[in-house]
């Protein structure tokens, strides 16, 4: 299986010092119900085992989602930031989905619903033929998420919700934002921060079992393959070296070449 977010993620992402706000878990769970089944292209709201994950998720398209998809192709795959991303595109196991919701509460509910769908693959929901599925969500109508601090607050709340809903160990959340930076960033022009910079705020949902399988397949010494964290750290450090060697200006140009026309 091929996963994008794990290879790009690094520890030490900059976080807000303000207390993470809460929506009210029961309200969000209730809001998940309509999202749970309308996301499939099948009119009956069901998975079709013979079709790929990307083919099955439906929804309105958006310039931001197209820009993020371009970024995956032109930056992530082209520069080898994730060794498995190219295979994910080839197999159509990566679905880039537009969320039409406008409020942060609605976006959070939609993200949780999509996370639950991935967690249910192979259990209460049938797996796809290739058993490969990962979802990259973009919410262009929620203007508040353009603020990196607000985006981080929502991500922090989602991580707590994952724990309360027992999604940890089943689904991971990887984060991407135009203003992404790490807590230990070397400064405003540290090119290493571009590993997490996408043309639009995005939430990448990954199945834990696929992440582990992808990391185990990475070409390293046998003793390193047994340590998933060591493999992830190796890829992160390699990406940081590459991006810093490429330089901040060229990395910025790469990102801007993928931006949506109405991006601000």
Task: Characterise the protein shown here.
It is a single chain. With 264 residues, the protein is α+β, with helices and mostly antiparallel strands. Helices cover 45% and strands 8% of the residues. The chain is built from 11 helices and 4 strands. Helix 6 (104-120) links the parallel strand 1 (94-98) and strand 2 (134-138).
Strand adjacency order, main sheet: 1-2-4-3
Output the structural class.
alpha+beta
How widely separated are the two ends? 35 Å
How many helical elements? 11
Helix content bin: 40-55%
DSSP strand tally: 4
The geometry reads as: globular
Rg, nearest Å: 18 Å
**Strand percent estimate:** 5-15%
Q: What would you call the quaternary organization?
A: single chain
Q: Unreliable segments (pLDDT under 50, ≥5 consecutive)?
A: 1-21
Largest sheet: 4 strands, mixed
Report the order of strands and helices: HHHHHEHEHEEHHHH
Q: Tags for this entry?
A:
disordered N terminus, 4 strands, alpha+beta, 264 residues, 11 helices, single chain, 4-stranded mixed sheet
Helix-strand layout with pairing:
Layout: H1 5-8, H2 25-38, H3 53-56, H4 63-77, H5 85-91, E1 94-98, H6 104-120, E2 134-138, H7 148-164, E3 171-176, E4 202-207, H8 208-216, H9 222-225, H10 228-246, H11 248-256
Parallel strand pairs: 1-2
Antiparallel strand pairs: 2-4, 3-4
How would you summarize this macromolecular structure in one to three sentences?
The chain has helices at 5-8, 25-38, 53-56, 63-77, 85-91, 104-120, 148-164, 208-216, 222-225, 228-246, 248-256, and strands at 94-98, 134-138, 171-176, 202-207. It is of the alpha+beta class and 264 residues long.
């Amino acid at each position: 299986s091929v996963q994008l977010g794990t290879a790009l993620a690094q520890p030490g992402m900059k976080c807000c010092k303000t207390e993470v706000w809460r929506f009210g878990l029961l309200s969000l769970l209730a809001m998940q119900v309509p999202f749970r089944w309308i996301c499939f292209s099948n009119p009956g709201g069901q998975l079709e085992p013979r079709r790929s994950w990307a083919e099955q998720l439906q929804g309105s398209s958006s310039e931001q989602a197209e820009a993020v998809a371009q970024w995956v192709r032109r930056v992530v795959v082209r520069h080898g930031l994730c060794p498995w991303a190219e295979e994910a595109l080839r197999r159509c196991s990566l679905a880039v989905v537009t969320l039409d919701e406008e409020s942060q509460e609605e976006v959070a509910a939609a993200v949780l619903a999509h996370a639950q769908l991935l967690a249910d693959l192979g259990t209460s929901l049938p797996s796809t033929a290739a058993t490969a599925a990962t979802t990259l969500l973009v919410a262009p109508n929620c203007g508040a998420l353009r603020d990196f601090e607000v985006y981080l607050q929502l991500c922090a709340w989602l991580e707590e919700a994952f724990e309360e809903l027992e999604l940890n160990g089943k689904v991971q959340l990887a984060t991407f934002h135009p203003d992404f930076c790490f807590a230990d960033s070397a400064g405003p022009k540290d090119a290493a921060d571009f590993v997490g910079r996408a043309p639009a705020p995005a939430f990448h949902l990954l199945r834990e079992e696929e992440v582990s399988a992808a990391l185990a397949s990475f070409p390293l010494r046998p003793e390193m393959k047994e340590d998933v964290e060591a493999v992830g750290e190796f890829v992160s450090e390699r990406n940081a070296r590459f991006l810093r060697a490429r330089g901040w200006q060229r990395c910025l140009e790469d990102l801007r070449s993928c931006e949506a026309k109405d991006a601000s």
